[in-house]
Design brief:
The protein has about 120 residues and is mainly alpha-helical. The protein has a domain of about 70 residues. Strands 1-2 form a two-stranded antiparallel ribbon. Strand 1 and strand 2 form a beta hairpin. The longest helix is centred in the last third of the chain and has 38 residues. The two termini are about 40 Å apart. The relative contact order is 0.12.
């Protein structure tokens, strides 16, 4: 076990990656998306489940025959999660392209496929 946990070559590759403007762009883009997505998700969850827990009578208000505010809220909540998932999927394709370029820059030239298996 004389091998160090991180070799000088790995440290140099990491430093090259962190200095690359594409890495900064990747980190910033992912951070922006996740702040937005988590904020939207958490706000919707707190509003919907908070209303269900503390004001259930509001969700039982009938809008028309067989349709209540709870049904509309539940469908809206699921739709929000679906939209966030689609947005993540689309953005991750661009992030995968950046990651492949960064892997090449760092010297990891072995074939790699992005998430989803498509090139």
């Amino acid at each position: 076990m004389d091998r160090p946990l991180v070799t000088d070559a790995e440290t140099a590759a990491t430093e090259r990656l962190l200095a690359d403007p594409r890495m900064t762009e990747l980190i910033a883009a992912r951070r922006r998306f996740f702040i937005y997505a988590w904020s939207a998700f958490l706000t919707a969850a707190v509003l919907f489940f908070g209303t269900a827990a503390f004001f259930p009578h509001v969700l039982s208000i009938k809008i028309s025959d067989g349709i209540s505010l709870g049904l509309i809220g539940g469908i809206g909540y699921v739709a929000l999660i679906f939209v966030l998932t689609v947005q993540y999927s689309r953005r991750s394709r661009a992030w995968d392209a950046l990651i492949l370029g960064l892997r090449h820059t760092a010297g990891y030239d072995e074939p790699s496929t992005p998430a989803g298996g498509a090139r």
